[in-house]
């Protein structure tokens, strides 16, 4: 997401870091380049003007210019201003005490509104809500069928109603939610290819009929600066509460995401970064700003990992990992857990510089899949005791997996590194627990680490970057 802008900004900061001291001319030059980078990303020109003005004023202060690390301070200033641009604080979806809560989605046709409705229903279902989807788009061919298909895939009921009156369908949908004990209603309204009076009147009529607790506007990230005009029109007529930015995983410049908060005053509540049901994420301005500047987003990755069921790892396996005695079966299990969290690419993109490494092709994203094929060619004894593997066994395994012997050796090397790393990390954790125990604090023995990561400590995920970056060697 926003890869081109991220790459340009990181290149600018790299040039600043190569200088020991910064002059006013250096700051002016950097600001010109940042201005061009933002405009090329299709950020609204008024937003760019204000952003550059504020950033430049802060960068020219004595605290920055006379510090021992002026380039780092410039990056910090840009990070702060970028976070301010996106919205200083998170804007979460707040449920009212009303049952059912009614959430109405609006937006242009093609913005991904129907898909966003289904994804939002899936997210709320994961949060222990019982949502109902209401199909009020009676104009687009097969719109209700699309919502029905998505709802069936996610296990969410869809109310389609009868007739061609979207206002009546919305009202009936709310009554159906009450009758079927649903606590959230998500109304998917119709859109047009452009802003017109009929669409606005219909949205106003549905709003007046069902009195939604939240109105969310779905915006296509590929729309560019025009998204501001569209959002402004909807803000005036239906006064929406927040924005869902869809298609953030595309190759668009994505300037609309950086413009919409400042121009409309409406916060971004969610971003959609894929086609899967779980690809709708809560929007965090500070994390997005760090991602754009190449600083990674470990917090989001850790939250994703923590959502996984703790019982997915059996206790005997966890204890074996804690002792550092991993075997090949554990290695497969770890690969499966990483895959559930998005794979190597998701893990590396959360680390500083990870997006750049992926874009440059320095990482083989399928290396762990290749390793699983090799492990599956081993006998039960070989998986549990990989130290018995000799030359003839490796040759047999390579032939069975359809690979070369050096690839089997590569797997063993990575496995040994992982086992050593896990043993060191768990040893450090145990030492810390022992020190706390000496202070007289009795704690219940618990398995440390991120759920789904085999006991791996949150603070030690960075240690995996070097190992994963060399998987294609």
Detailed description of the structure:
With 473 residues, this protein is α/β, with parallel strands linked by helices. It has 3 domains: 3-86, Four Helix Bundle (Hemerythrin (Met), subunit A) (Up-down Bundle); 101-285, 3-Layer(aba) Sandwich (Rossmann fold), CATH 3.40.50; 313-469, Orthogonal Bundle (434 Repressor (Amino-terminal Domain)). It has 22 helices and 8 strands. An 8-stranded mixed β-sheet has the order 3-2-4-1-5-6-7-8, with helices on both faces.
The name of the CATH topology of the largest domain is Rossmann fold
Low-confidence spans: 308-314, 442-463, 465-473
What percent of residues are in strands?
A: 5-15%
CATH architecture of the largest domain: 3-Layer(aba) Sandwich
Mean pLDDT metric: 77
Helical content stands at 55-70%
- Find the count of extended strands (DSSP E, 2+ residues): 8
Q: For the largest beta sheet, what order do the strands appear in spatially?
A: 3-2-4-1-5-6-7-8
Question: What name goes with the CATH superfamily of the largest domain?
Answer: P-loop containing nucleotide triphosphate hydrolases
For the record, what CATH class of the largest domain applies? Answer: Alpha Beta
Query: What's the number of structural domains?
Result: 3
């Amino acid at each position: 997401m926003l890869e081109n802008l991220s790459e340009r900004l990181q290149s600018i900061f790299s040039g600043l870091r190569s200088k020991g001291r910064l002059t006013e001319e250096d700051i002016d030059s950097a600001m010109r380049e940042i201005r061009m980078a933002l405009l090329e990303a299709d950020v609204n020109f008024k937003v760019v003007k204000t952003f550059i003005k504020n950033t430049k004023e802060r960068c020219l202060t004595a605290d920055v210019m006379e510090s021992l690390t002026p380039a780092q301070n410039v990056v910090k200033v840009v990070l702060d201003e970028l976070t301010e641009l996106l919205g200083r604080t998170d804007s979460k979806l707040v449920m009212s005490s009303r049952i059912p809560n009614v959430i109405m989605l609006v937006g242009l046709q093609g913005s991904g509104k129907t898909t966003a409705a289904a994804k939002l229903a899936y997210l709320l279902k994961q949060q222990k809500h019982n949502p109902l989807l209401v199909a009020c788009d009676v104009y687009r061919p097969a719109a209700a069928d699309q919502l029905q298909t998505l709802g069936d895939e996610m296990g969410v009921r869809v109310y389609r109603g009868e007739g061609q009156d979207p206002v009546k369908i919305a009202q009936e949908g709310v009554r159906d939610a009450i009758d079927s004990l649903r606590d959230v209603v998500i109304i998917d309204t119709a859109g047009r290819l452009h802003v017109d009076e009929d669409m606005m009147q219909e949205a106003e009529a549905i709003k007046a009929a069902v009195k939604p607790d939240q109105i969310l506007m779905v915006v296509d990230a590929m729309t560019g600066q025009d998204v501001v005009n569209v959002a402004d029109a909807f803000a005036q007529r239906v006064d929406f509460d927040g924005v869902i930015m869809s298609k953030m995983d595309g190759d668009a410049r994505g300037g609309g995401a950086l413009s919409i908060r400042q121009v409309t005053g409406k916060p971004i509540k969610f971003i959609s970064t894929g086609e899967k049901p779980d690809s709708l994420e809560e929007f965090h301005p500070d994390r997005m700003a760090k991602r754009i500047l190449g600083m990674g987003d470990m917090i989001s990755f850790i939250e994703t990992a923590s959502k996984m069921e703790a019982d997915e790892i059996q206790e005997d396996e966890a204890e074996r990992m804690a002792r550092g005695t991993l075997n090949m079966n554990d290695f497969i299990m770890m690969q499966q857990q990483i895959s559930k969290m998005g794979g190597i690419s998701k893990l590396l993109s959360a680390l500083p510089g990870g997006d750049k490494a992926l874009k440059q092709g320095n990482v083989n994203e399928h290396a762990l899949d290749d390793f699983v094929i090799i492990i599956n060619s081993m006998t039960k004894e070989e998986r549990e005791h990989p130290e018995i593997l000799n030359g003839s066994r490796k040759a047999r395994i390579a032939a069975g997996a359809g690979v070369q012997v050096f690839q089997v050796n590569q797997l063993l090397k990575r496995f040994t590194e992982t086992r050593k790393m896990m043993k060191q990390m768990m040893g450090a954790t145990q030492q810390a627990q022992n020190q706390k125990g000496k202070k007289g604090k009795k704690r219940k023995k618990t398995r440390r680490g991120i759920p789904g990561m085999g006991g791996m400590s949150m603070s030690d995920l960075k240690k995996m970057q070097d190992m994963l970056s060399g998987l294609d060697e």
